[in-house]
Amino acid sequence: MSATVVEIVKSKNLKQKPNDDKLGFGKYFTDHMFVMDYTSEKGWIQPKITPYEPISLDPAAVIFHYGQTVFEGMKAYRTSDNKILLFRPDENFKRLNMSSERLAMPPVNEEEVLEYLKQLINVEKDWVPTAEGTSLYIRPFIIATEAFLGLAASKQYKLVMILSPVGSYYTGGIKPVSIKVEEHYTRAVRGGTGMAKTAGNYCATFNAQTKATSEGFTQVLWLDAIEKKYVEEVGTSNAFFKVNGEVITPELSGSILPGITRKSVIEMLKDWGVPVTERKVSIEEIFQYHKEGTLEEVFSTGTAAVISSIGELEWNGQKITVNNNKIGDLSQKLYDTLTGIQTGKIADPYNWTTEVK
Amino acid sequence: MSATVVEIVKSKNLKQKPNDDKLGFGKYFTDHMFVMDYTSEKGWIQPKITPYEPISLDPAAVIFHYGQTVFEGMKAYRTSDNKILLFRPDENFKRLNMSSERLAMPPVNEEEVLEYLKQLINVEKDWVPTAEGTSLYIRPFIIATEAFLGLAASKQYKLVMILSPVGSYYTGGIKPVSIKVEEHYTRAVRGGTGMAKTAGNYCATFNAQTKATSEGFTQVLWLDAIEKKYVEEVGTSNAFFKVNGEVITPELSGSILPGITRKSVIEMLKDWGVPVTERKVSIEEIFQYHKEGTLEEVFSTGTAAVISSIGELEWNGQKITVNNNKIGDLSQKLYDTLTGIQTGKIADPYNWTTEVK
């Protein structure tokens, strides 16, 4: 693989880098970005690294009206010996193409775009933060740019990759969070776009999220839209339940995002000999396990937070506390192992990390 | 009401106007647009008319990642005595605010924005086309502009209004169209965003639309996502069925867009003494009426096409022909009356039109 960026335009005004303890999530962006355009006649053309700068689009661009867009989220980590590692980036670009298929958008060459990303990170390597829990968040996204208000897939697109040094997603770190089961709003339904990483899925959750936050919860748990019974996701993460030694996670029904952390957790559990089952799981069943004393741990998985321990769960007026509102041993082991592999602290037996050289 | 646009910046390079017979839909845009910004501290500020020009946004703008946006569609018509009429624009801005509420976005002052629109149309009055069936399509939209990747409602927005001279939406005019009932994909579900005019609802339909077109259909008919049984919308229009003298249209369930043409049709039918019922209606029921010989007319309503006659309907491998694939008398009367009122050809007994002076 030797895809080279056609052009690198260096920024003349480098920004001051924020302190590692001030990063937060998605607030600061590096000095450069990657841009590549697509037309239906020429395909993907003009890959280039440019200064981080505004995107200028016709007001009739399809993205503004019909929301044709997909994105990915991934991270680069600095190791103690100053290497920069990516975690399963091939999976992210594979999912990007899967999302694009659902949104009637053209695929990218996954290997080439990964090479472009590595070149971008190389230009920005001083932006990969060093403090514990920090990383360089990577946001590739494709937007439909054709200036046409007819209801049809755009004939022009722009792929952009931006980078943002980030701290922990949850300001409280891996302290267990309090989750409310959402009863009114729904996130996705079969036949819809729930399995794709596309903008419309996310803005649809803001009202529920705001309401949950105002009631003192960190996130909502989404039930399926059809029966309002089965667990789908927690916020924008995948849900896991440890019940009597077995780990259960909702099966990929078509309305659940196939998380890469989810997939990694399942693979690790299998490797460790922990029974893990992907199946439909109802919220009623979870509350029943709690009543019987067999609900041992609840956690969610995602790129931003990696593993998030869930200490409290409210549904239908009942609130249950899981594992005395402490992070469980298995959740902790998953977090330590995953972040250990991601940051090069422990050996990577799965060949999941890729060094940016 | 005397909201004045703070600033009008005239374009120095006026475009050549396309011929009325070449307009199509949403391809040409006028010389100017309206722009107004919002910040959570200051509210809506700096309303202005500027040359039609690219919108420049930070690559991390919320619209690109989480799709927080709403829009409207409406038309300005030229009358034979050279007046310019808007059709129920107050309803559009009311719906814009209703959509914004669902998307966790700030409302606009409906009356003020209507005044701004009138000022914009005044600047662009020569762009309102004159030929039969043509109009000036108006697209107000609001996009979330804050540069922040955290999952939360944006604190900054931009309202833009652009204008596009258009011909008939369907190139075949009001000739009856062929519709396929979509069995796999879904458009919306209760608790989701189906009742709001927001971008994510539209890109979600492109795959189904493309498939239907390749199979020779003009549009798809959407069933409810839960039981896959009840009629929701046709393409992006509201569906109507005339059965044994009675007109039936799906009730606003929460996943159906409350169309302004839909509302107008219901009001006209009531005024005419035609029985009209808003209720759940299953596709099975419609096919049963056809079998019994009581399905008299099928049509859909929307701003772009006004009334679209449906001549063929395919579901589950069966294809039925409605009214010998000819436009029905009631559909024709609704079309003639509505477009007559819109273009000032016939008196407006409902006070639906507003002149742009």
UniProtKB/TrEMBL annotation, chains A, B:
Question: Which terms does the record give in the GO molecular function aspect?
Answer: L-isoleucine-2-oxoglutarate transaminase activity; L-leucine-2-oxoglutarate transaminase activity; L-valine-2-oxoglutarate transaminase activity
Keywords, in A-Z order: Amino-acid biosynthesis, Aminotransferase, Branched-chain amino acid biosynthesis, Pyridoxal phosphate, Transferase
Q: Which CDD domains match?
A: BCAT_beta_family (cd01557)
Record InterPro entries: Aminotrans_IV, Aminotrans_IV_CS, Aminotransferase-like, B_amino_transII, BCAT-like_C, BCAT-like_N, BCAT_family
Any one GO biological process: L-valine biosynthetic process
Reactions this protein catalyses: L-valine + 2-oxoglutarate = 3-methyl-2-oxobutanoate + L-glutamate; L-isoleucine + 2-oxoglutarate = (S)-3-methyl-2-oxopentanoate + L-glutamate; L-leucine + 2-oxoglutarate = 4-methyl-2-oxopentanoate + L-glutamate
Task: Enumerate the Pfam families for this protein.
Answer: Aminotran_4
Q: Quick one: which pathway? A: Amino-acid biosynthesis; L-isoleucine biosynthesis; L-isoleucine from 2-oxobutanoate: step 4/4; Amino-acid biosynthesis; L-valine biosynthesis; L-valine from pyruvate: step 4/4; Amino-acid biosynthesis; L-leucine biosynthesis; L-leucine from 3-methyl-2-oxobutanoate: step 4/4
UniProt name for this protein: Branched-chain-amino-acid aminotransferase
Organism expressing this protein natively: Anaerobacillus alkalilacustris
